[in-house]
Amino acid sequence: MDSYEVSTLKKGLLILDVLRQKHSLTLTEIMEELSMNKTSVFRMLYTLEKMNYVIKYNKYYQLNPHIFRDEHLYWHKDIQWTSLVAPYQLARQEEITTYIGILEDCEMVIKNVIREPFEQPDFHAIDTRTPMHSSALGKVVLAHLSPKKQREILNSIELNTFTTKTFYDYGLLIPHLQVIKAQGYAVDNEETNLGKWCIAVPIYVNEEVIGAIALHGSTEKIKKTAIRSFVKKLVNASQQLTEEIHYLLA
């Protein structure tokens, strides 16, 4: 080691750096990433948490987004979506691409996409748009809006056809949205892209739907028989997201 280096400080900075790269890790995962012993990692994390550089949610540690803040891409309504833990846990658990979409005006805007190896956001996809009437993200949000807001959005969009399965008739889409609201989730069954399925559930903040979380993959990866199982895991992730958001905004 260089004679001018301070080893303790260096270890602390290495922990901050690995959390910046991986976004959320357990104590054990940090130990493995940095080849450090449990006592050292625990003491470092305890100190960083006390100084507010790191926050702990459940067993996962992450950078405090109010200190490590990117003003350009990743903040929306005081929420840094790429820092939230739940989508990474879901993506790693299921090994399926995970999306977060947020309603902005009358559009669904992507705020995080986590693809294999499920560690980093796909930064190129952030702030792209997804169709309200064909994507699972858009449909599940539409279904859970107030009737007034739903009509406002439907009157402002065109029901463009992307595949032979896309809803292009308001007379069919509106009853479909009613079914989605009743069941609590939406499925994009190759309505936007052939060979691709997507399942989404809403995200609530202060009992208001603001967006959705979704799993997206090929028809081989997402089987029709597994939809109920995926929905249960998405609902759990959505509930955790709501808890995280309330924690960060408190």
UniProtKB/TrEMBL annotation:
Annotated ranges, domain HTH iclR-type: 6-65
Q: Which residues form a coiled coil?
A: none
Q: Which of UniProt's keywords are assigned here?
A: DNA-binding, Transcription, Transcription regulation
Q: Which PROSITE patterns match?
A: HTH_ICLR (PS51077), ICLR_ED (PS51078)
Key word Transcription regulation present in the record? yes
Q: What is this protein called?
A: IclR family transcriptional regulator
Report domain IclR-ED positions: 59-247
Q: Name one Pfam family in it.
A: IclR_C
Organism, scientific name = Lysinibacillus agricola
